[in-house]
What does this fold into?
Amino acid sequence: MSVAGAPSAPGTRSRWLTAAGWRGLFRDRPTIPLLVLLAVLVLLSEVVRPGIVNASWAGVMLRTAVPLAILAGCQVLTMLTGGIDLSVGSVASMSGFLVATLVGDYGLWAALAIALGISAIAGLLTGIGVGVFRVHPLIMTLGMGLVVFGFANAWQLIMVQTGGGTPPEIRWIGSGSLWGIVPHSLLVFLPLAALILVGLRRTGYGRLLYAIGDNPIAARLSGARSWQVLAVLYAISAGMAAIAGFLLSGLTNVASVTLADSYVLPSVAAAVIGGTSIMGGRGGYGGAIVGALILVVITSLLSSLGYPEAIRQVLFGSIIVAVAAAYTRVTAES
Amino acid sequence: MSAGTGTIDGARARPADAVIGLLRHNAWTIGLLTFLALLLVFTRTIQPSYGPPGIQSLANAVLPLALAAVGQAIVVIGGGIDLSIGSIMALMSVITAALMKAYPDLSIPIVIGVLLLGLVVGAINGGLVVVTRVPDIVVTLGMSFVWAGCALLVLKTPGGAAAGWLKDLVKGPLLIEWLPKAVVVLVVLVSVIWLPLRRSRLGLSIFAIGSNQLAAYRSGVPVGRTKITAYAFMGLFAALAGLSLTASTGIGSPVPGQYTMQSVAAIVLGGVSLAGGRGGVFGPIVAVIILQLIRTDMTFLNVNSNLATVANGATLIAVVMFGSLIQMRRERA
It folds into this structure.
């Protein structure tokens, strides 16, 4: 790392040294190359559509990225233990929908609490399935996603007469912004992100997640009760998905049971681009936040280029693979 | 040990041992078959008129997902996973439908071309996994966008046409009314492609790299090449699944649908280990039939279709939990 910090010395002999230094820097601080990529993308947006990049554009990007970044957080936390959470889409949609339908009868706070509670229960069940019954997280969260989606759909049929809309408070926090620039959703996101970042680094629970993902047997032999850790983890993940669902329904002013479905794969992509290993034990939340921003900026860039949906999807997928490949290459342990 | 499970059926020394070994190795599949039989009896009880037409529509509904599950099983046995299989199916389906509408006379070359394209697309996925060394799940997640985008490039909205013979291939019964053509197609395709593959050196290599990649490499198995071939076979089966979609609907739709996740669910229910190296394709096919039959029964019982989704998810979890409990007891014993 110290090598990278030093000014690059001219001459061929030190070139390899510098390259290795860069490599080390990227490995230790994966957020830096991602921020560079983000800057390049922002620059590219400006080149493609001069004048587009300004304060309100940045505000829109941030506002759009917040729900994705929270869902990416679910993926980071579960992926650190070698899992994945594919139920975030249904859980987020269900929570947003539940709040919209319950707010009329019970008031905002009670509706939020009910939605959060139900999500957490679903998450806890997932966690017990993964931790106690050792069902593969992919299958467990897939199945739980179906269960939650089915119940939400049945609930929708019951509530179809009463209807209901996204409450104004949720709209305020999801889509409002200070002076048209600073999105209100940061009020939710910043404390949450800080909690995750500090929690992963400084708390025993955070270290346990890394330990279980890195070497489950070693973690067990060291006295970690991994089933308890996993049960709580998936409950936390579902709770975060619920929060993302509230913000998303506020952002789009829509409450539907399929609202967040299209966010599931991008949330995994954001976590992966952010340097979290899907095999567990390696990664962090900082990268995933930047990863979510990168995905949002790419999407906006591709649509401002005026490409049809088809080309946009192809480019989006290619970029995900390319970034992941570059990442693996750079951080590969030689 | 696990590499041999799928390839060598018990000892050949004594017939009795061989039979017991065969039963033990296929216990999960036999369990599934029993479950399916009970389910059929149950279906017949709640709907006494359930007969050939019911079997026919069941077979038609099952065919695309069963083919996709076979493809997914091959990749997962080889230690990978393909999250783009639904997109590949959509791509193949729209290419077939679009070409068959434009050139109705060239339907046979089109089918051959699409199958070859399936092999190529699968090999591209596998090649990317091998070259980039990025985990399979991430590469194929990215590629799912790419292939879905390509499908949209071919057809923006559902459309196109299917050749008459292709539709006839899966429609109606063969010889006796209880035997739908779709079942015959499935059995023929799987026996022509999977059975020789499993018996071959290549098939053994696929089990080997899924079971323990390092051990396989040290035993001289060309890991990269085997992995790419496994993905190519997945692509071939995805192409077949896409063709069967076009054949049964008569059009091509660029929207991938739920096939990716359903195929993953089906193979796990069918006894394929997501860790790789263990399983077959027969179990997943039975699992696909069971899942579809449960859905049919729910309709007969007038259960709300959303609760049927809940039941599907719960069945998935329950069966896998059951399997993992058996596994845990065996480990403890």
